Amino acid sequence: MRIDHGGGGGSARTGQLFRDAPAARTIGLVAVVVAALLGSAYALGRSLVPDPPTRSSVTTSATGPHYADQPPADDAPRRTPQGTPDPSPAEAGQDGGTGPDAPPPSGPTDGPFGTQTTSGTALVALTFDDGPDPQYTPQVLALLREHQVRATFCVVGENAQRHPDLIRAIAADGHTLCNHSWNHDVTLGRRSPAAIRTDLLRTSDAIRAAVPDAPIAYYRQPGGAWTGQVVSVAQELGMTPLHWTVDPSDWAAPGAGRIAATVVAGVVPGSVVLLHDAGGDRQGTVDALHRILPELTSRFEVEALPDGVT
Asked: How far apart are CA 79 and CA 93, in angstroms?
């Protein structure tokens, strides 16, 4: 009887377990679903949070530009009073902007704002900017003398004032003198006509203090940053605004080989070549002349631009 009683109690408990099983399964299923939903929510949240940057995600280059050395960006073209775009220099404070790949000019005065870009004849003209410089100008003069070539020197007024002996040496060798502003002010063309006139007259006075009555037939705007105003003032003062045809960018010191190769490949009859004898380390330009002068003189007549004196 006890056994039967005990057995009956076990059956009751077993029955109760069977009755509770569906509820347990339901609870387990709910737990699994909740866990899955929580996992999905976590994954979604992680996907919305950006991963922290890693070293491999940063692009660097040992030869990339040093941004602090770059001129400030100015995407909006400046305008002249006439509403036409005002050309800006390729590199702030330096002459540039007409590379060897530029199409050859079709006439002597088809440069920016009607500036002269060729010799106007078959003659090839070498021009040297930013001097005179006591280290490089004498070397340039010696090489020109050796190859019996006369050139055009676009001199900066304050350098002419500091080195009048070099202005006299340039004139004594028969080279043409060109006004290149008082202190290489790239923005000069955007100043008032009165300010431009004062600057150009001051520069010409410094040249003539060294060589009285020296003809100054040309004016070249620093940086090639021509405007209608600076062209008009130069013309009013009796100077032809002088641009260029071939620019080897020697101001950037790319090396003698590249300077020489660009000039030799780019020159055609009538070319005006832009070079520098001051304004930085110009030894590369001086060294390039050892190749430029013999190669050009073997193919062209290389001569200074006329100074208007017959």
From this structure: 19
Asked if the bond preceding 306 is cis, omega within 30° of 0, the reply is no
Catalytic residue among 86, 95, 129, 185: 129
- To the query of whether residue 276 is one of the catalytic residues in this protein, the response is yes
Please give the model's pTM, rounded to 2 decimal places.
0.69
Q: Mind giving me the DSSP string for 88-99?
A: --SBTTB-----
205 is catalytic: no
Q: pLDDT digit of tens for each residue in the chain (310 aa)? A: 444 444 444 444 444 444 555 555 555 555 545 455 555 544 444 444 434 333 222 222 222 222 122 233 333 333 333 333 333 333 333 554 443 344 444 567 789 999 999 999 999 999 999 999 999 999 999 999 999 999 999 999 999 999 999 999 999 999 999 999 999 999 999 999 999 999 999 999 999 999 999 999 999 999 999 999 999 999 999 999 999 999 999 999 999 999 999 999 999 999 999 999 999 999 999 999 999 999 999 999 999 999 976 4
- Name the active-site residue from 163, 175, 243, 276: 276
